[in-house]
Design goal:
By secondary structure, the protein is mainly α. It has one domain. It is built from 5 helices and no strands. The chain has helices at 13-26, 34-47, 52-58, 64-71, 76-91. The protein is elongated and about 70 Å long.
Length: 100
């Protein structure tokens, strides 16, 4: 669960939303919803390089593909690293020897 009480039990969504709206109004922030908090939590986890499988399980997505479809745009660094790793591997690969 993304948001829990100190004992690990789920927080009542209506109570959390009420508290969120009250506290946001107290400090002059715009009204946000629980889904916004969920998206923020996912963004922070992905930006902190938490493995995507862990993010997916934390968000209780039914499949990893769901997480990738929703948050895949947050992974450009991972894509760059994959391309760089492939380029490095190819640069250091043994070249085939000519056969005479």
């Amino acid at each position: 669960m993304v948001f829990t009480r100190p004992d690990g039990k789920p927080i009542n969504p209506e109570r959390l939303l009420h508290t969120l709206h009250r506290r946001s109004a107290e400090i002059g922030l715009p009204k946000i919803g629980l889904h916004d908090l969920r998206h923020t939590a996912a963004t922070i986890m992905i930006s902190s390089q938490v493995p995507l499988a862990v993010v997916s399980k934390t968000l209780r997505h039914s499949t990893l593909a769901t997480t990738v479809n929703i948050y895949g745009h947050l992974l450009p660094q991972a894509a760059r690293e994959a391309v760089t790793a492939l380029a490095d591997a190819l640069d250091h690969a043994d070249l085939p020897r000519e056969i005479n």
